[in-house]
Design goal:
Chains A, B: Keywords: Glycosyltransferase, Queuosine biosynthesis, Transferase, tRNA processing. 2 copies of one chain form a homodimer. Helices cover 43% and strands 18% of the residues of chain A. Chain A has 376 residues and is α/β, with parallel strands linked by helices. Chain A folds into 2 domains: 271 residues, TIM Barrel; 94 residues, no CATH class.
Chain lengths: 376, 376
């Protein structure tokens, strides 16, 4: 994997870049649609590629390990072939998912023992095991196994956890170095900065992670309930330590406004379930604000879903029609809203990139943040 | 509306034809995908048009009347514009739906009083009212308001009901003649033959309907639980009376085998929820038999869903992948299976048409019936 920094905004830390892997190039800043269980919910792979057009998507190790399982994925020749997606894939390490299981998991130095949310069966994730699983999945970018701390988090717990995450990282690096990719394309490991919302811990962690010398670095443990300002403060501080010449991935973030603010702080990569999850609840993101399409006010509004036409659905269907689909709970409503929201997120990233290249990112961002906070 | 009979199979009563309306031509035999509530479940209008490619789809008066309601549809400029579908639409009359409400409806000479399945509110469907609703929906083909009798049905009830359906038909014809289409395209009324599974009643009804001189005729009250042989016997008898030079529409039928058998008896048009409903339950129809994709045997079968490639999904995704989507209950599974099944149904109709034109329908049909009855 290589990363080329193409432009930096003169009035912020925003960067435009290009990552190159065996599955092609990823223009940054990038938002990665979440394909938890080998599918971006409600969206065909062809639509994802041709309409939404991300250079990379994300899969979830925890979910894929449980179903279809690594045996099936190996037989299929990896996740790319299994789901018919020939661009880049990043897999998270399962750290966040097992952390979410709360009562049904036990974290020890060796790893995390957890109970499957499906059948209650017991499983153990270790740093080594999770590297092996991600080898079998065949992701282009593999995430280190970490503990994602909750918010708020006791300082002592956060510190202890951070150190364990660092020890786990060493084990991940060792395992990756001892093993080979299975499907003929390279895989690269991104370590994850932790440290909750404590500046000194974030600093220590960022230094530790920077020293690993990975091809890209991630910031985890944010967007777990803390106020936006705390998130931005942490991102800013961590980015001042992480190497300039490597892509920075802020995990699990966020709203369109969160994306632009973090781009301004030097983040290059994002993922979040928000565009698809909110879509399924009838919430649409647009450049002028957000819409609750279930609202009666759209009942007889026959204008296009979005005149900006990020994807074909935006002008193929009207607001009144989409509102009808939600009011009668039709599948097509979920499909349309998901495509729209993802199309908007990817458009926002392409637009941000162009503004960075043009040197006008900062003022554009401030206007967009204002617009996008409006309820339509 | 015009109907041109282009070919008749020398060894059966199967016909190939062409219907022409203001929304274009309909090549027969045709299967009409069911778009109950202004959407064919799980299928985008673009996929419907470009991949499945039916010349006509069906909407349900009962459902559209309740939601979004005729006010919204009128403001939208009719159902075609509301849902963005520029080919033909046929609407049923709501007769079948109100009949299905059983306990929540009361049938009288004037019409049917029923309670909405949504909020329990009371509504009245009369022949005149249903014509007005279908004018507002703007369907190209409007169905007469009828009573669909259950199976089995007491002879006296079937006879009384049939006569009422005939009287209702007269009221429908009168109302249609007194009113005009609202959106600049013509609308034509199809009357419906009833008479349960009684040959003499079916004969009387077919004669009554034939005398109306409509541009097309329908056969209702079948596929409600009777054995296939009784259905075929009724269709055959009715078709011997209905005019040769008008299209014949067998309502609510059926399996792929039912379609071919009824085509052999001279039926030109079909509709059924089966391809989409069964798709959502994981049942796939193919030219070689049917598949329960949830079955564990497909878990590691990485072959294409269907090598015949009726639509792009058939070769874009594998059986193992589709099985995975069903096992984790992902939306995309429903979407893929729906497109596949509809693609197959429409392919079957196009193939039947070509065989009729070639004069080889009968032997082809017998082989296909054998194949399609196989469980794969």
């Amino acid at each position: 994997m290589t990363f080329e920094k193409l432009a930096v905004d003169p009035n912020s830390k925003a960067r435009a870049g290009k990552i190159t892997t065996d599955h092609g190039t990823i223009e940054t800043p990038i938002f990665m649609p979440v394909g938890t269980r080998a599918t971006v919910k409600g969206v065909h792979q062809r639509e994802l590629k041709e309409e939404i057009n991300p250079d990379i998507i994300l899969g979830n190790t925890y979910h894929l390990y449980l179903r279809p399982g690594t045996d099936i994925l190996e037989k299929a020749g990896g996740l790319h072939k299994f789901m018919n997606w020939d661009r880049n894939i990043l897999t998270d390490s399962g750290g966040f998912q097992v952390y979410s299981l709360s009562a049904n998991r036990k974290i020890k130095e060796n790893g995390v023992k957890f109970k499957s949310h499906i059948d209650g069966s017991t499983h153990l994730f270790t740093p080594e095991g999770v590297m092996d699983i991600q080898r079998k999945i065949g992701a282009d970018i593999i995430m280190a196994f970490d503990e994602c701390t909750p918010y708020p988090c006791d300082y002592r717990y956060a510190k202890r956890s951070m150190h364990m995450t660092h020890r786990w990282l060493d084990r991940c690096v060792k395992r990756i170095n001892e093993t080979d990719p299975l499907y003929g394309h390279n895989q690269t490991l991104f370590p994850i900065v932790q440290g909750s919302t404590y500046k000194d811990l974030r600093e220590q962690s960022a230094e530790y992670i920077a020293n690993v010398g990975a091809e890209g670095n991630a910031i985890g443990g944010l967007s777990v309930g803390e106020p936006d300002d705390e998130m931005y403060a942490m991102t800013e501080h961590v980015n001042s330590i992480l190497p300039e010449d490597k892509p920075r991935y802020l995990m699990g973030v966020g709203t369109p406004v969160n994306l632009l603010e973090n781009i301004a702080l030097g983040v290059d990569m994002f993922d979040c379930v928000m565009p698809t999850r909110n879509a399924r609840n009838g919430m649409l993101f647009t450049a002028n604000g957000f819409i609750n399409i279930k609202n009666k006010k759209w009942e007889d509004n026959f204008s296009a879903i979005d005149e900006n036409a990020y994807t074909w659905v935006d002008t193929a269907y009207s607001k009144a029609y989409l509102r009808h689909l939600f009011s009668v709970k039709e599948l097509l409503g979920l499909q349309i809203a998901s495509i729209h929201n993802l199309g908007f997120y990817l458009w926002l990233m392409r637009e941000a990139r162009q503004k960075i290249i043009d040197g006008t990112f900062r003022t554009w961002k401030e206007q967009m943040v204002k617009n996008m906070n409006t309820r339509l």
